[in-house]
Amino acid sequence: MNAIAVEHLRKKHCVSEEFRKARYIEAVKDVSFQIGKGAIHALLGPNGAGKTTITRILSALLLPDGDAQRFWDTMLLKMLKE
Ligand SMILES: Nc1ncnc2c1ncn2[C@@H]1O[C@H](COP(=O)(O)OP(=O)(O)OP(=O)(O)O)[C@@H](O)[C@H]1O
Ligand SMILES: [Mg+2]
After folding, report:
1. CA distance 15 to 21
2. pLDDT tens-digit readout, 21-47
3. Whose alpha carbon is nearest atom 11 of ligand 1?
4. Please, where are the H alpha helices in 1-82?
5. Pocket of ligand 1 (CB under 6 A)
6. Phi, psi (deg, nearest 5) at residue 67
7. What is the distance, to the nearest Å, from the Cα of residue 12 to the centroid of all Cα atoms in its chain?
8. What is the pLDDT of residue 16?
9. Contact between 43 and 74 (Cβ < 8 Å)
10. Exposed e or buried b for every residue in 37-75, given b needs 16+ CB within 10 A?
11. What is the pLDDT of residues 58-70, one digit of tens each?
12. H-helix or E-strand spanning residue 27
């Protein structure tokens, strides 16, 4: 049984808010994972790997790129189905 199911998560952070000069950092690139109910996992990676960004998205403090509604539906439906 999954507690968390993430599929193809992506997030770009805007690093310049100048008009017509928006630049982005691809903080999370196509990340998928599942965590079973009751399991304990660590999210490891070097500085800037995207750990905090992923954690903030899973905590609903930040929106993922793309279809955020679909992201939440997939995550929630998977959790509910299993
Ligand atoms: N709010 C933000 N605005 C712009 N860029 C950001 C923002 N938050 C993170 N970034 C950039 O996104 C990338 C991933 O950052 P993140 O903080 O998710 O990594 P991390 O794995 O938690 O790093 P650390 O180990 O240093 O805590 C980095 O290049 C970072 O500079
Ligand atoms: Mg961090």
Report:
1. 10
2. 889 999 999 999 988 888 999 999 999
3. 27
4. 51-58, 68-81
5. 13, 15, 25, 27, 45, 47-53
6. -85, 95
7. 11
8. 83
9. no
10. eeeeeeeeeeeeebbebbeebbeeebebbeeeeebeeeb
11. 888 999 999 888 8
12. strand 23-36
